[in-house]
Amino acid sequence: MATFQSNGADIYYEEKGSGPALIFTHGHSMYHKQWAPQVDYFSRSHRTIVWDVRGHGNSSLPDGAVDPELFSKDLAALMETLQLPSAVLCGLSMGGHISLQTAVRYPERVRALVLIGTPFTNAFNWFERTTAPFSRFSTRLIPLRTTAKLTATALSKLTPSNHAFIMEAFGKMTHRNFVRHWAGNLRMDSRADLEKIQCPTLILHGDKDNMVGRQQAELAARIPGAVLHTIPNAHHLTNLDNPDEVNRWIEAFLNGI
Length: 257
Known about the structure:
Shape: globular
Number of strands: 8
Radius of gyration: 17 Å
CATH architecture: 3-Layer(aba) Sandwich
CATH topology: Rossmann fold
Distance between the termini: 29 Å
Largest sheet: 8 strands, mixed
Helix content: 40-55%
């Protein structure tokens, strides 16, 4: 348990195990405990590292507009702090996009990528171009606890224990910081950069995940050599809905790189 400073924010992280470095990045509104099943499993053979993206969990969020370029800078700064020349990056949703952008911006630091339920843009088609601005506006008006309850209900249908975790994660954010960070998150866009990824890439997608499913085939097609697998009985919190299957695919991937 430790913190370091990066671009004006205090960034929290935890380590467990030894061996090749494996860094996990959580989704928006979640925090590092999202990865508990993976840390328990992979810390037997890897140096596992989890962290809280700025504005989440135990990490701070400086005043002002949230620049999404800082997310990958923070991840690179984490690696610098830990004196890691390179690591395998694993992320879900926003965390996957942060990992992807880190591989584009710091290719020498990323040994491989595991992208779970990862979007690469918030303007993929007419539906997203319509709903993203509405989402940004509506989050300002809806109380954070209401957003938390709606999210927890939607993402706990397969795994009831997700409900308490999601409510806990949202509880670590203020409404103001949620709105500010969500606006930054919606500005992330890597449509022009996918072909630049040079490392081995595994893409996992829950079969019940209707939030980012429309992007997965193109994501896999445009990242050179990427492999896509569908995880059964899993929604958007894929790593919590079916951790055994997710761990199995990640382990096989790590053994092959």
